[in-house]
Amino acid sequence: MQLMETPDQRLSALLARLRAHGHRLTPQRVAILRALVHDANHPNVESLHQRILAEFPTTSLATVYKTIALLKEYGEVLELGFGELGSRYDGRRPAPHPHLICTRCGAIRDPDPSGDAELVALVERLAGQTGFAVQSHRLDLFGLCSACRTTS
Amino acid sequence: MQLMETPDQRLSALLARLRAHGHRLTPQRVAILRALVHDANHPNVESLHQRILAEFPTTSLATVYKTIALLKEYGEVLELGFGELGSRYDGRRPAPHPHLICTRCGAIRDPDPSGDAELVALVERLAGQTGFAVQSHRLDLFGLCSACRTTS
DNA sequence: CTAGATGCAAACACTTTGCACCCTG
DNA sequence: CAGGGTGCAAAGTGTTTGCATCTAG
To answer: Residue B1: what pLDDT?
Structure first.
């Protein structure tokens, strides 16, 4: 059994999905998708844009925003909004899952997926008490990653 | 054993805390705190402002923001940021706890606190796997409240 | 009295939108 | 070669800030 798609497999799936819906695969768009699925640190729009500029120097921020909006329409990207601090994106695992957010260095990583089932059970239990029908959920843990914890 | 402070007890505690730190208790400020602890639906700044205007018609939005910022400094209000949709505030239970957010009517309510211990345990387990030191957390459930679920 | 609070408007950060031009399919 | 995509700048949203005026203690 395969535990997780490779970034390139994921990229192919996204490209196929867009193509199937009649969207064009422009070089900029492909580059944005590639950056999104290869970056494990849940990039924000600004850092995606920087990456794309290296390859396509005229790419605008608006194009990055529009491409992400397109992926959101198809439920293919998970948006982690942080108010005034902007949003970070997970293009690898679009289903809800917990995130570990380092308040010092800003890194965001996924915990091991082994606890996912337990989280879903807890979510359903919390909701069930009051007849709430859950559509989605979000669990964020804020703190210090192991690297930051051991550094002055 | 008392399960939860009454809103008025909570208000007194907040006023005492601010007074102890040398802050002035202006009528507007007291009104904002009162609105905050009496509103169980996690109000946003705009709705707090509307409430205050009824009593003090010249109150500005900036004053509401500043008062909330003050409470945040002392960890006496829980801010639930929702990106472009603005923030909602919980002045009754400033410690992290789950929220049930209705995507139809916008209501936000707390589930029964009985599951809190289990959530904390799960949080610590998810973090422990990778040596992450949790400072805080946030669990939001999005869906339909029981009223909205049974209405066309 | 005087430090701290208020209220207005301008400034801000992130995101979205309008529109002329461009290029994929 | 037609309709979707790009890129620029302008508009929007919620929030913050500067500063003159006011007021609680």
So the answer is: 58
Could you tell me if A97 and A103 are in contact, meaning their C-beta atoms sit under 8 angstroms apart?
no
Q: Could you tell me if B80 and B89 are in contact, meaning their C-beta atoms sit under 8 angstroms apart? A: yes
In this predicted model, what pLDDT tens digit does every residue of B9-57 receive, in sequence order?
A: 999 999 999 999 999 999 999 999 999 999 999 999 999 999 999 999 9
pLDDT in tens, A21-73: 999 999 999 999 999 999 999 999 999 999 999 999 999 999 999 999 999 99
Whose structure tokens read 């923030």? B87
Q: How far is A4 from chain B (nearest CA, A)?
A: 19
Cβ distance of A138 and B133 shorter than 8 Å: no
Q: Which residue's structure tokens are 């990207």?
A: A77
pLDDT exceeds 60 at position A1:
no
Residues of chain A contacting B118 with CB distance shorter than 8 Å:
122
Beta strands of B91-132 (E only): which ranges? Answer: 99-102, 108-109
Burial of A96 (0-12, 13-18, 19+ CB in 10 A): buried
Using CB atoms, which residue from B125, B129, B137 is nearest to A142?
B137
Tell me whether residues B127 and A83 touch, CB distance under 8 A. no
Q: What is the mean pLDDT of residues B88-92?
A: 98
**3-state secondary structure at position B117:** helix
**Amino acid letter, A35:** A
**Spatial CA neighbour of A74 closest among A14, A116, A122:** A14
CA-to-CA separations, A95 to A19, A36, B46, B83, in angstroms, rounded: 22, 15, 32, 19
